[in-house]
Design a protein that fits this description.
There is one protein chain. By secondary structure, the protein is an alpha+beta fold. The chain is about 25% helix and about 30% strand. The protein has one domain: Fumarylacetoacetate hydrolase, domain 2 (Alpha-Beta Complex). Helix 1 crosses helix 2 and helix 4 packs across helix 6. It starts with a helix and ends with a strand. Bound molecules: 2-oxoadipic acid (OOG) and magnesium ion.
Length: about 260
């Protein structure tokens, strides 16, 4: 087995066995392209178990996230059908290692986006709907500690996500969209859309442009999560988490 396949299997085992592993950077992961190959291998294992590719996600696109994780560069990952939950679902924390949750703005594309040179205006023109999202991240690394390359290999810590029930055509300025995150009815974090790269569509453009390196594009029908607007909060048993975005509605997840 090559390192890529071995590393992908190691991260997959950590996820399915809910037992964290040591960062791959400590075992020789030093190359960006290899990190994304491990990510593709990891997602490939899910697709091999019958999951479908639903779209993409951005990570570390806001200063709040970068500061929280100690990594100052964005990255992207892929989301699959096994990660999707309906708003209002309750998650069993036994299936996760040390989950955290963060509020995001999700884009549902009506047309493909192929880089290079994709702009915010291109993203908005290709977007059919935007909606609030909750992204539950669950790093497969011990202590939720990793380098940029480790987090890429681990598919941007993807675990579970939920979209709000209202799908809204993009209008108004998403940079000014207000976001409030509540846990058990108490406000714990807040932000505006501009927290993500000045405009959340800039994150989607970033992913479209990055995919050129591996001859890929964002596909019509895909959902793309634009990245945590605030620092993530631990998802604890018995809690109910709600993200509300002005003009877009809200999304809720519970945890047992
Ligand atoms: C990696 C990035 C995850 C985001 O929105 O920043 C992410 C991490 O923080 O574990 O989904
Ligand atoms: Mg996220």
């Amino acid at each position: 087995m090559t390192d890529v396949a071995t590393w992908a299997a190691r991260l997959d085992d950590a996820a399915t066995g809910t037992a964290p592993t040591a960062p791959l950077s400590g075992d020789g992961l030093t190359d960006l392209a290899v990190a994304y190959e491990v990510q593709r291998g990891l997602v490939g294992l899910r697709l091999g178990r019958g999951e479908r590719l639903l779209g993409g996600k951005l990570g570390l696109t806001s200063r709040a996230k970068q500061i929280a994780m100690g990594v100052d560069r964005p990255l992207y990952g892929l989301v699959t059908s096994g990660m999707a939950r309906n708003s209002g679902s309750r998650l069993s924390l036994e299936e996760l290692i040390h989950p955290r949750v963060e509020p995001e703005i999700a884009f549902v594309l009506g047309e493909p986006l192929e880089g290079p040179g994709v702009t915010v205006a291109d993203v908005l023109a290709a977007t059919r709907y935007v909606c609030p999202a909750l992204d539950v991240i669950d790093s497969r690394y011990e202590g939720f500690r990793f380098t940029h390359l480790d987090a890429i290999a681990d598919n941007a810590s993807s675990a579970v996500f939920a979209l709000g029930d209202d799908l809204v055509e993009p209008r108004g300025d998403l940079a000014l969209t207000g976001c409030v995150l509540e846990v058990n009815g108490r406000v714990v974090e807040s932000a505006a859309g501009a927290a993500v790269m000045g405009h959340p569509a800039a994150a989607v453009a970033y992913m479209a442009n990055q995919l050129v390196a591996t001859d890929r594009r964002l596909e019509a029908g895909w959902v793309v999560l634009s990245g945590g607007l605030t620092a993530p909060v631990p998802l604890l048993p018995g809690s109910t988490v709600t993200a509300t975005l002005s003009g877009l509605g809200s999304v809720t997840l519970g945890a047992e």
